[in-house]
Specification:
mainly alpha; single chain
Length: 158
């Protein structure tokens, strides 16, 4: 296990505050906490970010997500546990996370568009960009996985 290289909130508080500002917006944009956290977990899996996988898995459990849906997330396309809207968000997450490989193909956009308004799609894209930025900060800094605890008083989404 490597020791952390740097602690972003301590050495770059302005950057950390800006990232938290993005999070505040996203949590108020109307997409829903469970959907946002699901795409955060999926992007973190794609990027191999151990700290963020641990965080978002725990957050989803607090929100009432089932173990079955969490275990099946790596194979979401083959798993019947996800709604059409969630599937659209997940395919969009993969396309935006791997933007260098396909520049978000028109076929993906056309498949996703019926499930989200233009504003929702912009917010979803912003959420994916934000988690990708968090993943890169955490991976580069070598933040230790396993230490995250969900906030006290976190509620199950109803």
């Amino acid at each position: 296990m490597e020791t952390p290289r740097f602690v972003t909130p301590k050495i770059a508080p302005g950057l950390y505050a800006a990232m938290l500002g993005l999070e505040k917006y996203l949590h108020e944009c109307g997409l829903g906490e469970k959907l946002l956290t699901l795409i955060k977990l999926r992007a973190s899996q794609l990027n191999g970010c151990g700290f963020c996988i641990d965080m978002h898995w725990k957050d989803l459990r607090v929100l009432g997500e089932t173990e079955q849906r969490l275990y099946g997330l790596d194979a979401w396309e083959e798993s019947p546990y996800y709604t059409d809207r969630e599937r659209a968000a997940l395919v969009w997450t993969e396309a935006v996370t791997f933007v260098a490989e396909g520049h978000v193909p028109a076929s993906v956009y056309e498949a996703v568009k019926p499930h989200f308004s233009d504003k929702e799609l912009a917010d979803l894209t912003g959420a994916i960009a934000t988690i990708n930025a968090w993943n890169r900060l955490v991976i580069a800094s070598r933040t230790t996985p396993g230490t995250y605890q969900p906030p006290k008083g976190a509620q199950k989404e109803g």
